[in-house]
Amino acid sequence: MVSFVNDLRSDLNHFYLSISFELRKHFRRKGLIMALILAVLLPLIFFIIPIAFDTGFADTANQFASSNLAFINILIIISAAIFTGDAINSEFEKKTGLILFPTPQRRNSIFVGRFIAAIIGVWLVVSIYYLITALEITNIYGFSEVSIEFLKSFLIALIYSVCAISIIFLLSSILKKTIYSSLIGFFLLMMILPIISMVLQLADVEPWFIVTYSSNLMTNVLAAVTTSTAGPEHGPGGGFGAGFEPDFYVGIGVMVAYIMIFLVLSLIVANRRRME
Amino acid sequence: MTGIKLNKEIKILVITLILTSILVLIPSTGAQPGSIMDQPTGMGTEVKVLNITFSDDDPMEGDKIVISTYIKNNGPSPVTNITVSIILNNEIIKNITDVTLEANESKLIEYEWTTDKGQQNIGVLLYVNGFPIQNSMVYNSIYVEQEPLGDVATLFFAIIIIFVFVLSLVILPSILTAIRPEIKPYSHKKNASKK
């Protein structure tokens, strides 16, 4: 029993060390600064341009937030690629694993620590984006207009961030080069999965099992629907990718399932991987 | 020759009379009871839609609201077989048939509608004997708010589940080692020995 407790304590200590070391590494890198600059600049565009061209803002705070958060998806994917792309395969690529792996630290605690550090990095970027959007809403519409839907959107963005990280984490454990895992992860979440989702919708199949489809919840919860949903429809089955909307609970369930499956798979692959 | 000329003139006169009488009689037969044109057509009737109102002007998605419309017959004679079509975004959603209006009578027509989110244009169009009454279409629009999606508690719960799961992965090797000491799952020692 004493051995078990010591083992547990040791694991948790190593886990903490791995997180703190990885975070220090992130804060030293230019990638974090780039992601933070994007997180500040992107929401400011939606605030400055209407003022500069005197076009006026959206009618409601939620509509403003909905248009403002159009880029949150991209920012999450970029940040996840930056913080996670090299989480596992860098040890094998740069051979630093030869020093790290023989230490009395379990690989599990190293990799899960890196996973958590990546989450902290991406969450920081996402939080800044939402904070600036909230400040803009407060400035334009007043603080009372920062709705509960905005909080929901923020929490969904946090969950989706973890999901994007876990997908790229798996790629990092499988692929040899860090650049491949970052790029493939980026294109997978940015293009490949959305294209599959769109094609399925054209074929009148709801792509509820594709996580990028569930990520639409980030803006859908803001309920900023302004156009008629019963207007003329296009495409086979009467919809041009607009016939389906992700269900809230199914969408969150899909995200959580992706996180669990991809994280476990990536840990299995990373633990079995050998230094070449 | 004169006889032949007269005959021609008589023939022309007779044909002219027949054609004139046909042209004159056709509209009058429409008004005669019992004929095919017995009921008034859509054209010429003075039935109008006065307004369209909603039981709730600020509904949520999925709410059942009542669309009310007043129709009035401004003409001096009764109009039967009126069909009131309720139109949602250029698509007929309900036909209320066999409505009769006496002279100068107005009538309230109601229809319960389950709302769909977004901007919705509700129109009412009148038909008499299956013919639409020209310029009788009246529109009113309503904005239906989307039903709030999900709840914050579920999202917090999901985040907690994720972290508990991730933490369990950290301590899982220790637990496995404690249960079965001969198995050291993916520890550095195992990897080192394999090398």
Q: How would you describe this structure to a colleague?
A:
The complex is a heterodimer of chains A (276) and B (195). Chain A is globular, with a radius of gyration of 21 Å. Chain A has helices at residues 2-28, 30-52, 61-68, 72-84, 89-93, 97-100, 107-141, 148-174, 178-202, 211-214, 217-220, 248-272. The two termini of chain A are 38 Å apart. Residues 225-241 of chain A have low confidence and may be disordered. With 276 residues, chain A is mainly alpha-helical. Chain A has one domain (10-272). By secondary structure, chain B is α+β, with helices and mostly antiparallel strands. Chain B contains three helices and eight strands, in the order H-E-E-E-E-E-E-E-E-H-H. Chain B has helices spanning 2-31, 152-179, 188-194, and strands spanning 47-54, 64-73, 79-88, 91-101, 106-114, 118-128, 131-132, 138-144. In chain B, the strands form two sheets. In chain B, strands 3, 4, 6, 7 and 8 form a five-stranded antiparallel sheet that branches. The model of chain B is unreliable at 27-40 (pLDDT under 50). Classes of the chains: A mainly alpha (276), B alpha+beta (195). Chains A and B meet through helix 1, helix 7, helix 8 and helix 12 of A and strand 6, helix 2 and helix 3 of B.
Features:
heterodimer, A: 276 residues, mainly alpha, 0% strand, globular, B: 3 helices, elongated
In short:
Helix content of chain A is 72%, strand content 0%. Chain A is an all-alpha fold and 276 residues long. Residues 225-241 of chain A have low confidence and may be disordered.
Q: Which H/E pattern describes the elements of chain A?
A: HHHHHHHHHHHH
Unreliable segments of 5+ consecutive residues of chain B: 27-40
The major beta sheet of chain A can be summarized as:
none
By oligomeric state, this entry counts as: heterodimer
Report the order of strands and helices of chain B: HEEEEEEEEHH
Name the chain pair whose interface involves the most residues: A-B, 56 and 43 residues
Radius of gyration of chain B: 38 Å
- Average pLDDT for all residues of chain B: 78
Shape, principal axes of CA atoms of chain A? globular
Largest sheet of chain B: 5 strands, antiparallel
Strand content of chain A: under 5%
